Amino acid sequence: MDFSFTDEQQMLQDSVQKFVRENYDFDTRREILAGEKGYSEDYWNLFAELGWLTVPFSEEDGGFGASAVDLMVMMEELGKGIVVEPFVATAVMAGGLVSGLGSADQKADLIAKIMSGEVQLACAISEPESRYNLASVSTSATQQGATFTLKGSKVAVLNGGCADSLLVVARTSGDQLDRDGISVFMVDASAEGVTRQSYRNIDGHTAANIRFDNVQVASDQMLGDAGQALSVLEKVIDIATVAVAAEALGALDSLLQKTVEYSKTRKQFGVPIGTFQALQHRMADMFIECQLARSIVLMAAMKLDSSASDTEKAKAVAAAKSRLGKAIIQVSQEAVQLHGGIGITEELDVAHFFKRVTAIETLFGNTDFHTRRFASL
Amino acid sequence: MNADFTADELAFQQQVRDFLENEFPADIREKIDSNVNLSKDDIIRWQKILNKQGWMAPNWPVEYGGTGWTPTQKYIFNQEMGRVGAPEPVPFGVKMVAPVLLTYGTEEQKQRFLPDILESNAWWCQGYSEPNSGSDLASLKTAAVRDGDHYVVNGTKTWNTLGQFADWIFCLVRTDSTVKKQEGISFLLIDMKSPGITVNPIYLMDGSPEVNEIVFDNVRVPVENLIGEENKGWTYAKVLLTHERTGMGRVPYTSRRIGELKTAAAARADGEGGSLLDDPIFAQKVAEVEIDLLALEYAELRTLAAVAVGKAPGPESSILKIVGTEVAQQVDELFLEVAGYDALPFVPQQFQPDFAGEPIGQGSLASASLHYLNHRKATIYGGSNEIQKNIICKAVLGL
User: Fold this and answer.
1) Do B207 and A346 touch (CB under 8 A)?
2) Cβ contact (<8 Å) for B373 and A136?
3) Contact at 8 Å (CB) between B216 and B236?
4) B164 vs B178: CA distance, rounded Å
5) ipTM above 0.90, yes or no
6) I need a labelling partner for B310 at 20 to 30 A (CA). Which of A33, A200, A366, B292 fits?
7) 0.90 exceeded by the pTM?
8) Within an 8 Å CB–CB cutoff, is residue B387 touching chain A?
């Protein structure tokens, strides 16, 4: 039993931590968000140079090892600065689908492009009626000879506005809730019939709602075999869930730290408010939540890297996302409350950490969804 | 002991319902139902309609324009307004500075200021909090120094709501720094057009410029604008706090929100062919918050019942702000849950009255996250819930 980092993990942590500390202060983040793309292309290229874009990929695919613990280590450090570059959308989600479903040629082509930083991708998964159910797909892909016609609507496509290509989850057969019949297609974002409505999320990240009106795709743009994509999709989303969960750990720790610091410097009634025992206990409660969240996310990451069954792995992720959600609500709300009025302002960073973890609570299923998922597995 | 309304009270209730049915403007109602922000003009228009009915200032003495209602009638009025989502008048003029004027002002001051408040010809805002005086309001430092016929005011006020619309501001200012802090504060009325006043917007995390920082740089204020006596301002401000104990739980507003929540949940797909309200776990959470609201409602009624028979509000009145804001925030969280992925987009401009683009998401769910973000303020403003608990400990529990 050993929870210490390998040398590679320690180096990864050190390098991401250093980057955030030295290059990603709050003003820098604000400037990046104010730009048209909403992320820094220079930093994306830096991530590529530093090898970080290889972390989600296996060694045989040319990556760092596809370890969930590696990913967790990296994402937590990014979370301390709530870094907005679309790492999860492009490298983890799209990268994961390509790795899990792609043919040898598709993988050879796309994975290299992701790792080199030259391509932006987005996965179009959720639909207005699907909520968090990955099996609920009504976007259709109808085959005619060597082409498929895509028709449907996707929402909450992370990085959807910036993506060069979209990985679209569409149904090639079956009814809306059937587990069989779901396929994934690579679609050029500027293809005819693709309409993107781009916006920013509450956390500043870019996203889009996308309509597919009779979009023509060649059959070799399908990733993997028709109708077989769901179980890979579920696993990729579970990895992405652990990734954003780890990011939330970093963000929650930052919120706790900022709250403690503020309580030491903010004076009212002649004393720092951090001397009031009532508030001290609430900060202790925040600490407990942060530690429990850290523990359960670590459990899930370790489980994903182990030889446990698929069901055990899914259950571990569900437990982590569920428990993290409670920590997010409590820690983020307390951080704002204990900062008083300034915690609600746009100007201070606290609100931005609050908004990012609030978004993470919803991403890939909220607390209730995962609690129920855990119970049903 | 009974909670029934009398026949007269029921008739009054019907009268209020009829008024709202006929006079609450459809376009304003529409904006409120679709979560679109009201403009300054909308707010003033509605207030003038209330005033035409004579219902702008129910708490004022009749001779100054009040309604002469019993506490129960006031309660009924607030309930009916809340039921249809009709906004209460902006409180700073009619509910905050007016009672102080009525109790401590000279006749000349009353004549000068009250009619414009009643008729919504003057928009008032509040100058209390400062960057270093939040919960410890009495430590405020904005100074007013006497210079002939004027006070010269220097300092900074913050968290000033809607000051960008205001014509006048009522301020707590320091007129004596040598005494115990509460004993050196005066209540001063300042024209927002006075030279030396700068209004800087403060954006909240939902993107709205709802509050301001107001800087006073050698602002000259005529001494006629002092209310009552110098250095008695803290006492006057405390009088304000004892006014209007019922209604602090905002039960009608939260009740309406819960109704909207259930409608939204019934229409929201759960991803498995049903609706979110079909889910017994979600339905239970909604039931729990409804039950909490019912307990709060009766706490309010206890206060009302005491006041209605001439007694002082009981100790339960000190829980109303705490519980009211917490229950309202629980509803905000439930809305976030219903919204699911609709909680992610940040498109506040689509709730501006002049928005002409394509909306992202619709109605109450598209605004769920904006509302959640903005409303974190509720447990912080108006005397934070921590301060409210201090008051319970000191004033009720004797700790």
Assistant:
1) yes
2) no
3) no
4) 34
5) yes
6) B292
7) yes
8) no
